Amino acid sequence: MKLKQGIGVVFNVKDINRTEKFYKDILGIQVERQSGGDEPDWLMATLGNGVELMFFEGEEQIGRSPIIVFELEDGYMETVLESLSEKGVEIVNPVSEAPGGWSADFKDPDGHPLAFYQLGSLPLK
């Protein structure tokens, strides 16, 4: 497994407009609205040093964030998840589509939510 430099922090929020106003107007962070195509809009802020904040609206996820997201380089994400599972890591959500790529959620030993993200189309085995 090879991780890219940088880290993404994903927040699940109740109201995307309220969140945008808070981070832009109150904290002064440059937040950009992203079009989700068929999916609802979401927000992204690049803080520098490879740190990105992403905000998605969705009631079912409230209270289960932020999630630290590690971006994978080339490789087959399902193989990485199989390896983690064999080592006793709890896989919460298998590989699924995400904006611009693929993601999968898992937990650390204390139950903290973590995820992998891979840009583009899912590589073949």
TrEMBL record:
User: Where does the VOC domain lie?
Assistant: 5-119
The chain's coiled-coil residues are: none
Q: What is this protein called?
A: VOC family protein
Lineage, broadest ranks: Bacteria, Pseudomonadati, Bacteroidota, Cytophagia, Cytophagales
